[in-house]
Each structure stands twice: as structure tokens, then as C-alpha cells.
């Protein structure tokens, strides 16, 4: 068994280039294996920035981000990219689907870039069948499989993005809530399915949002302002 939590952030400090003050200053943030955490904060408070740091897309000027025992800053760029695709499923705010690629191929993308994800997706059935199963579990029928991502509703795109994040059971699932206005009921419904699938796969789940109404479905809720000393120092 792993000795340390899946996510460990310590003494982190991050400032955007050109910015006068730090965006994030976090003494400590940890997530245990299998835990689901709802992190909320108003628009512009640094949620996406934190997710960029957890994904190793951004590196802090100071402090430590360890994921599954790996210090992200100690990995070279290529190794960091590999770590991310092997172990982290991301649902981006704008979904980042490949526009003209069919739904099925969008979902299978992580399996093209990560042998580990492909192997894990193929454990019980073919990766294709696993993609179909995930889409169905998230409420999308087979009629969308060959449809280009551009021809989907926002809600459907969100589900495709979720299936892509879940395929091959990455240990960590990170979701940046879309700003686009899905109504609260549909969003709660989507979230229930996402958590069901993620938890069945044993994933550690971090979901960020400005909408606290969704928090009840998670093991733990945290306000970014509670842990971000930079925000506390500059509170207007
Ligand atoms: N690429 C960038 N370059 C410089 N500053 C940035 C960049 N991205 C974000 N910022 C700044 O960092 C701060 C936090 O932005 P961030 O996108 O992390 O907030 P957020 O909480 O995710 O907001 P939202 O809920 O609207 O997505 C903002 O002041 C923003 O202007």
C-alpha cells in the first residue's frame, strides 16, 4: 500500500509572469486515495491555476506538488506529460475535444497516447467496448459514437469529455467545471454518474466549481480561499 496520500501539496507558491502578486500560496493540501473533494471558489480565484499545477502543466516558483509519490517538478517535461496521461484523467473547462474527430475516437485518445491506459481499458473487454460502456454509463447512446464532437450539445460534450477522462481508470480524476450554463438538475445528474464511475474505478477525484450547490455529493468540501494565503493577504 502507498504510504503517503495520493495528492500532497506543500508550501506552494505560484505567481503568473507579469503579475505583481502571487496567485496561489498554499501551505498544505492533501487528498487520500479514493477520496472525492469538491473545491470551490469564485471566478478568478485560482482554481484552474491550481489544477494546472496538479497536472504538471504549470510549475510553482516554490514548494512541492507530489502526485502518487512523484514530485512533478523533478520530472523532465516529457516524463511529466507521460505521468499525466498515464495517471490523471482531466475534464477541462472547455472540454478540449478534437472537433472533427468522432465521439468514439475522442474517448479513445488517452489509449493512443498511453499504453498503460490502453492496457487498463482492455482488461475486461476491448478498449472500444469499454469506451461504449462508459458513454452509456454517462447517459450517451450508440447513435453519437460516429458523430463529430462539433455536432454535440454542450451537455453531450461534457459526457464525452468525462468518458475520455475515465477510460483506462487513471488513479486521479480532475474536473474543471464548465462555465457554460447547464441547468442545475442536469449538472447534478451528470455529476452523480461521473462520481459513480470514478468511485467504481477507485479514483481519487478533485472537482472544482464556483457552484457550491453541487458539494453535497462529495466526501469533502473545501473553499480555495480557506487554504490560499495569497487571497487572504490581498482580499479586497
Ligand atoms: N495564462 C495566464 N496568464 C496570466 N494570468 C493568468 C493566466 N491564467 C489565469 N491568470 C490569472 O490568474 C488568476 C486566477 O485565474 P484562474 O483561471 O485560475 O481562476 P478560476 O478560479 O479558475 O476562474 P474561473 O472559475 O473563472 O475559471 C486570475 O487573476 C487570472 O487573471
Structure commentary:
The strands form two sheets. The chain has a five-stranded parallel sheet, with helices on both faces. Strands 2-1-4-5 form a four-stranded antiparallel sheet. It has one domain: Rossmann fold (3-Layer(aba) Sandwich). Helix content is 37%, strand content 20%. It has 236 residues and is of the alpha/beta class. The model has no long low-confidence stretch (mean pLDDT 92). The structure holds adenosine-5'-triphosphate. Adenosine-5'-triphosphate binds next to helix 1.
| SS field, number of helical segments | 9
Question: Could you estimate the helical fraction of the residues in percent?
Answer: 25-40%
Distance between the termini: 45 Å
The CATH topology turns out to be Rossmann fold
Low-confidence segments, given as residue ranges, are: none
Q: Roughly what fraction of the amino acids lie in strands?
A: 15-25%
What structural class do you assign from the helix and strand content? alpha/beta
Secondary structure tally: strands:
9
State the order of secondary-structure elements, H for helix, E for strand.
Answer: EEEHEEHEHHHHEHEEHH
Q: Which CATH first-tier class would you pick?
A: Alpha Beta
Amino acid at each position: 500500500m502507498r504510504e503517503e496520500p495520493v495528492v500532497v501539496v506543500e508550501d506552494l507558491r505560484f505567481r503568473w509572469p507579469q503579475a505583481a502578486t502571487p496567485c496561489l500560496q498554499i501551505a498544505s493540501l492533501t487528498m487520500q486515495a479514493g477520496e472525492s473533494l469538491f473545491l470551490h471558489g469564485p471566478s478568478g480565484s485560482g482554481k484552474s491555476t491550481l489544477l494546472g499545477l496538479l497536472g504538471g502543466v504549470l510549475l510553482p516558483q516554490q514548494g512541492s506538488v507530489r502526485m502518487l509519490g512523484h514530485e512533478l517538478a523533478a520530472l523532465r517535461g516529457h516524463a511529466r506529460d507521460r505521468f499525466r496521461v498515464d495517471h490523471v484523467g482531466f475534464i477541462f473547462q472547455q472540454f478540449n475535444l478534437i472537433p472533427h474527430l468522432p465521439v468514439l475516437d475522442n474517448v479513445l485518445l488517452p489509449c493512443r497516447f498511453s499504453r498503460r491506459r490502453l492496457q487498463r481499458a482492455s482488461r475486461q473487454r476491448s478498449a472500444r467496448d469499454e469506451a461504449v460502456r462508459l458513454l452509456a454509463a454517462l447517459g450517451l447512446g450508440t447513435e453519437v459514437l460516429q458523430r463529430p464532437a462539433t455536432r454535440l450539445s454542450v451537455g453531450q460534450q461534457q459526457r464525452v469529455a468525462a468518458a475520455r477522462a475515465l477510460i483506462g481508470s487513471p488513479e486521479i480524476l480532475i474536473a474543471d467545471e464548465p462555465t457554460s450554463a447547464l441547468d442545475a438538475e442536469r449538472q447534478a445528474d451528470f455529476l452523480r454518474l461521473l462520481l459513480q464511475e470514478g468511485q467504481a474505478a477507485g479514483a481519487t477525484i478533485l472537482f472544482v466549481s464556483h457552484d457550491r450547490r453541487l458539494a453535497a455529493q462529495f466526501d469533502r468540501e473545501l473553499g480555495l480561499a480557506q487554504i490560499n494565503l495569497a487571497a487572504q493577504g490581498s482580499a479586497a
